[in-house]
Amino acid sequence: MPRSRTPHDLHVVSTETITPHLTRVWFTGPGFDAIAARTQTDAYVKLVFLRDGVDYPEPLDLGVVQETLPPEAQPTLRTYTVQQVDDESRRFAIDFVVHGDEGIAGPWAARAQAGDRLPMMGPGGGYSPSAEADFHFLVADETALPAVSAALRGMPAGARGVVYAETGEPSDEVALPLPDGFEVHWVRRVGEDHSQLRDAVLAAPWPDGVVQVFAHGEAEVTMRGLRPYFRKERAVPASLASISGYWRHGRSEEAFRTWKRELAAEDEVAPVA
């Protein structure tokens, strides 16, 4: 018997164009309660994009779908971080990077209208700003800026820190909810795939005291470029280091999951200190 995997039901409240390549979609529905109950600021969800023309079972159960429908009928899952939550209005926002017709989620967000429905799995998460840290070092590209925004909103009183954020164009910079004691440095990517984020972070002054790190974005930059620096050279302990890739240049999310498993296998052989 297939394992039950029943998504939460969401529908679109409204959409906003934040930058030329960023669309914010506000959701509500029964899935809101799961979002509101989150304890981590990096609450991520898996959005379920159903294929046109497929007769899915009602109620939708992804376990049943996986066991009973052919590969070409399987939904596509994409992972996104909740950008902000409006408890009073019972709605939450997810930001989608949009590059024309490229991909699945971006074009969907560009066309989304109030009332459109979208199933959601989750949320998950593993990071929250620590009140014990003396300094918070946040690193992100466009895909991780929603998580950085959520982290900044969740900072403890009196927190200090810095954000290093990379975009492809100046028009893609977003207004971050910086608390007092924080500053942001914008880094420009050269072309589609030449990141300067690692170099900018390595050249940054290292703060005194206990440092908590949140570094997410393109996987080669974060996992191979920055993780050894933070974990080995700066000796940030695992308990204070949230470092992960959200995507990898030139790979779909499915191929990226395979790459992450391969990287995890490498770490089992040669773990990061």
TrEMBL record:
- Pfam families in alphabetical order: FAD_binding_9, SIP
SUPFAM superfamilies (alphabetical): Riboflavin synthase domain-like (SSF63380)
Q: Which Gene3D superfamilies match?
A: Nucleotide-binding domain of ferredoxin-NADP reductase (FNR) module, Translation factors
A molecular function GO annotation:
oxidoreductase activity
Q: Cite the PROSITE patterns for this sequence.
A: FAD_FR
Superkingdom of the organism of origin: Bacteria
In what residue span(s) does the FAD-binding FR-type domain sit? 5-130
Name of the protein this chain belongs to: NADPH-dependent ferric siderophore reductase
Organism of provenance = Flexivirga oryzae
